[in-house]
Amino acid sequence: MKIALINGSPKVKNSASAFILTSVKSLLPADSEFKEFKFNGTILNEIDLEKIADTDVLIFAFPLYVDGIPSHLLHCLDQMETYFNMMETKKIRVCVLVNCGFYEGHQGSIALGMMKNWCSKAKLEWGQGIGIGGGGMLASFKSPLESQGPMKNLWDAIKVMTDNVSNPHEMDNIYTVPNYPRFLYALGGNMGWKKQIKENGLNRKA
Amino acid sequence: MRLLIHDLSEEQINVVLPERKDVMKIVSDDGSTHQCNGCFGCWVKTPGVCGIKDKYQNMGELFSESEEIIIISKWFYGGFSPFVKNIMDRSISYVLPYFVKRNGEMHHKQRYDHKIEMKVWFYGDHITDEERLTADTLLQANAINLACNGSEVNYVQSITEIKLI
Description:
The complex is a heterodimer of chains A (206) and B (165).
Chain A: E1 2-7, H1 16-27, E2 33-38, H2 46-53, E3 57-63, H3 71-86, E4 93-99, H4 109-122, E5 125-132, H5 152-163, E6 174-176, H6 182-199
Parallel strand pairs in A: 1-2, 1-3, 3-4, 4-5, 5-6
Chain B: E1 2-6, H1 10-16, E2 25-27, H2 41-44, H3 59-64, E3 68-74, H4 82-89, E4 95-102, E5 105-110, E6 117-123, H5 129-145, E7 150-156
Parallel strand pairs in B: 1-2, 1-3, 3-6, 6-7
Antiparallel strand pairs in B: 4-5
């Protein structure tokens, strides 16, 4: 099976999306042929479009921006839609992981809806989406996701998605929250922001 | 102040707003905009101001000066077009990075003691029911995240149907 792993973060390095896709890859069948892409600009080249069209599954990971898809990725999706509508491509399944900085993964449901709408326009098959809550801490993880620990729920969701990667049917979206209380996530997040602001020599109330 | 954000060409905006362009501040696409790069500098390095030095770096402040924000956007999968979405992405300095609980879920704390009315005009052909549902939900979520007084969504096929004044 040919699988494209598409990182839709605008960050050049250390993105949570890269971390998520590493975890996804580790749970997919090892004999898959992986093609990895980084969409951090607004223009896709013809060679990448050809490579993407020659796959069975597209798996996107990107951050939630203002309740939706980051704007640079919208440019890429637009080009892919045009390309797929021009070419006679086989059925390609699309799975999406949207990484939300808030605690509740369901806040990513609108972006997943947009990706599903995009699939209809681009003549692709919607597979499944995961709305990831508490994604703010993922980029700081030093080791891969585990079946236990603070992001256990995300690991479980990715396991369901990867187990069904060759399933021809549409699956229900999964929304995760961190495996600990919201007030602790908020407390840790707010302390993290204050620390960064202070390190830049600014008043933490900025 | 009324703020108009749109993705129309100069010719098209002259159809929508043929006169009295002075009644509102207008943010349009002149091709010079840069994409948000996810650095969070507008929160932790230069609070309230985007670190990308182009004419769109003060969007958060512009939001804080606007009682009404009008958006005209081409229809894109149930959301905004890439240009309009980029303006939204580069406006996050309107809020603070800190988390608060609002409407039973996590959102960002307001930077300004200010409320916005948001009015959106989506234009384009072939709007499906699913896309319309996505867009309705998007605007409800945007209104909560930006602490708006209210929001209104309109769907038109042709830009000639848009009524701004």
